Amino acid sequence: MSAPLGSASPQTKDDALTVCAISVLAGMLANFVHEGLGHAAIALLTGAKSGVLSTVAWSSAQDSRLVAAGGTLANLAAGLIFWVALRSAKSASVRLRFFLLISLAFNLFDGTGYFLFSGFTNFGDWAAVIAGLPAHGWWRALLVIFGIASYFGAVLLVGSARVRYVGVPRNEPRRLTKLTLLPYLTSIFLACASGLFNPIGMSLLWQSALPATAGGHSGLLWMKYYIPKGTAPERPSDAISRNYVWVAVAAALAVPFIFVLGRGIALHR
Questions:
Q1: In the predicted model, what is the mean pLDDT of the chain?
Q2: Other C-beta atoms lying within 10 Å of the C-beta of residue 10
Q3: Alpha-helical runs (H) found in the chain
Q4: Residue 205 CB neighbours (<10 A)
């Protein structure tokens, strides 16, 4: 009798090192999309002469509402790209599909989570976007409402994609937990390790980078409870086995990400 679609061999377990390596790559990419493409690139294209790019912030003498909003908008655009790529990756390996899934999660959670974060705290990117607008309290309330709705929608989408396109069935709770808890913890470690060296100061790590990561990615921890009933795997999912290519690439890129980009890079137009 053939195994059900989406099930892995009971004797095979997902390799934690490879799962963490894939998560590191997805986390670095989502961070660069936010800070590098969303903030830095938009700032330089809209008039800024120079600035400092790090893993926790873009800093320049010239700022605008568009630059402040750019990080979130870039993450949401990237999330759409990864969603299309994941749906199209019908014959891809489970490791690549898992990378696309975690990249989708990090980008969507970073994007939608920032609305909620800034609305509650009056701090961060969207606090800068609405700064000085009339009826400021109503704008904050709107950010909170929209943030809750959009974040929950992102959780539903990512949770369903994990079952449908990565192939992990809902009746494997331990595997579901492992494949979300490890990326969550990895993203926090990456944010802390790179943020320790940021040129603006430690306060930005505690006030923005760590809360945005720990809170923003928390949907990974509870989305298993909200996967719609009836959602079934559409593709087979072998266990994520040890792969030293993913591990080596993650290690090679993590070093400059933490110790070079973490310290900040001066960019000039």
A1: 91
A2: 9
A3: 16-32, 42-45, 65-88, 94-121, 125-130, 136-161, 173-195, 202-204, 210-216, 219-222, 244-256
A4: 20
Residue 226: Cβ within 10 Å count: 12
Q: Give the separation between CA 155 and CA 244, rounded to whole angstroms.
A: 30
**Interatomic CA distance for residues 27 and 49, integer angstroms:** 28
Taking CB atoms within 8 Å and a gap of at least 24, the contacts of 42-45 are: 42/66, 42/67, 42/70, 43/67, 43/70, 44/267, 44/269
Within a domain: 132? yes
Total structural domains in the chain? 1
Give residue 5's pLDDT band: very low, low, confident or very high (50, 70, 90).
Answer: low
Place of tokens 């994007």: 111
In the DSSP assignment, the letter for residue 41 is: I
Element (H, E) at 239: none
In terms of residue numbers, what domain contains 61?
Answer: 16-268
Query: What are the two backbone dihedrals, phi and then psi, of residue 58, each rounded to the nearest 5 degrees?
Result: -110, 130
Q: Is 256 helix (H, G, I), strand (E, B) or coil?
A: helix
